[in-house]
Amino acid sequence: MLKRLPKFIDPLVFADRGKELKGEIELDDLQRLADILANHNGKVVVQLSFFRQSRLAGIKGQVHVNIDLVCQKCLEAVRWNSKFSFDLGLVGSLDEADRLPEGYEPMLVKSEEKISLSTLVEEELLLAMPSFPKHEYNCLDLKQSEHVEARIETEEISSNNPFSVLAKLKNTGVK
Ligand SMILES: [Zn+2]
Fold first, then answer.
1. Fewest Cβ atoms closer than 10 Å to its Cβ: which of 41, 94, 99, 135?
2. Which tens digits make up the pLDDT trace of 20-63?
3. CA of 71 to the centre of ligand 1 (A)
């Protein structure tokens, strides 16, 4: 079982303590993803390592996301199952952000400022997410052919009905 993650974190204090967090983010907490999620089935598991190495304080994050997004072609659910990592450098100013080692995204924090963990993860999910989520197969054609089939079926039903009515009429008409 994964431990419950704190809702709010103090990144600088956690960096000084070399804290490690691992757990599952509640999908309900990812409010900016609400419109992009097809449903609430799935999981977002994160592992965060806070560290300070001389002047650099940061967070190394790993995310395993397995959720349903809305396919931008057919508007049905499409699974997004991916693992990705990120490196954040905690900075107090834009100057500091410029001095970060390569590969670090700056994260502006003030000392003793608590930040929402789900907002942090949400940000990284939005960055890593496909910009145009869609099924790998040609889902739209498939959906259209389903429509056609459905139409043929209804046509068959409606065209069958007059026959049965006629047949009944015939039966009663003969006698
Ligand atoms: Zn689709």
1. 94
2. 999 999 999 999 998 899 999 999 999 999 999 988 999 999 99
3. 5
